[in-house]
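My main concern about presentation is that the manuscript never shows what a single data entry looks like. The format is easy to grasp once an entry is in front of the reader. For illustration, here is how one protein appears when written out as sequence plus structure tokens:
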Amino acid sequence: MKIDIVANGQLLDVSIGLDAKRSFSCVLSPPDGDVTFVDVLPEVYEIYTNILGVNFEESEQKGKPVRCGKGCVSCCHQLITVSVHEALLLTHIVGLLRQEEQQRIQSTFEGSLKRLEEAGLLRDLLHSHVNAFEDRALVVGAQKRYWSLGLACPFLLGDTCAIYPCRPFICRQYGVSSDPEHCGQVFQKDHLIERIRLSHDFGSAAASFDGLEAIKTRTIPLPAIFLVHGMLHCFERPKATAEVMIARFLRHVDKHFSR
């Protein structure tokens, strides 16, 4: 990936070349001064939207268009996991909502945690995803147990995502070319889900990046973001200018999570 970021006053002109044939440009308006990775997540989301657009267009040209659409919410019943950075951003966003909406979301989160505790799954989810993410059997086993509970994402309102513009990386990059109905049988042996092949995995990259360098991968199960919110604020987060922070992350993505 060829990365070119040029400061233009308070804006950043970003040009990304995925290869010799695929490229795009965008203009970002990040915060001034030194920032953490959390502070520039909206800008990174915009970059990834462009990358995904290139990937999805290429897939469509090969006869495999994205079949996901509004009202298709099977994936919203899978376990959604987020990086520490995204967990902090999401809790902040909820705090900016109208009081009535905050209360509704908080109530839904509390209901999800109660169900997980009653099923004896909450501790296992946190351990497998925060401390033992490299143990794929443990992680997948916990995700299957979560799926069996039939819990919807706490941000799902009817068939609409309440935080769609700031939805996590894992949600953005989940695109299928197979019949969306098959997503409802995700853990069945004969399920026929065909994911769109992506050039870069920003979700995994964010979960293994501390704002400075690569770290051991750890994710937060989305229903637990408020439960661990206080703890997440205890860790020091590296800072840099937006230009440096974004470029640092993109290099991390390209080095470790390109396909």
The first helix runs from residue 41 to 61. The first strand starts at residue 2 and ends at 8.
